[in-house]
């Protein structure tokens, strides 16, 4: 770790000494490197939990943040992330020692920079995501600290480093908690999910949390209509698609949402029962798209075609086809 020096003697002994002792080292730099390596394994995390090292790491994060010591802060956040990965004692200690507030302070500072520090943002969200896996009490603590303002700020950052762990946190908090899912799919929560969809549509995603989140909200629950129509606000007329094919009606994000949920349904055809509200909404979208597409205009034959409205028609038709492949069509059968 080059390029940045740290006056270690300026840090309190109650911060430095436990880290040096736990790592059997003589410098903070060496201590962090050793502890990060040790904490990658479950046995290492358990050993460090027995030494109650996490409160010391939180104090170090606070000190490094105030000192603007970025390289060491990155290392301290990596250690904190590792400690909170699947080790219940560390996760509980994190909450007991105001870890959420500490990490949130670091996160806010990194996110509100004119040039956001994506490395710190990513690590901060990974810490919170790991803690969120520890159970409903910790999930609700994170939710009440971050919803809606902090989540909205993070969802507005168009970065892969932000969207993946943010989706993990939102999914983990909402899964099995209908009340939180409802909050997320009403104002002021809807702009959060809409912002994530816009980000993933433009930069993609590496992990499966985005699909898990949309499956939870749109296929396992009834929130697809609200989210779909939220994505149209202020976007459709500026979409830049083919106006001859009706692209002033739908937005590219709406087409992308239909693409993703049609993929999820196809992948989970025997697992997911689509709510009638969602099926009927998609049927209405299909009928609307058919009424505005100019079938005489030329577009690519495969999806996506380059025309937003043709894509909406195509993905909604695929979605309806897969619903019809399932048993128990409910109200949809009456109107097909």
From TrEMBL:
**Signal sequence region:** none
According to the UniProt record, one GO cellular component term is: cytosol
| Coiled-coil segments | none
Query: PANTHER family from the xrefs?
Result: ATAXIN-10
Protein name stated in the entry? Ataxin-10
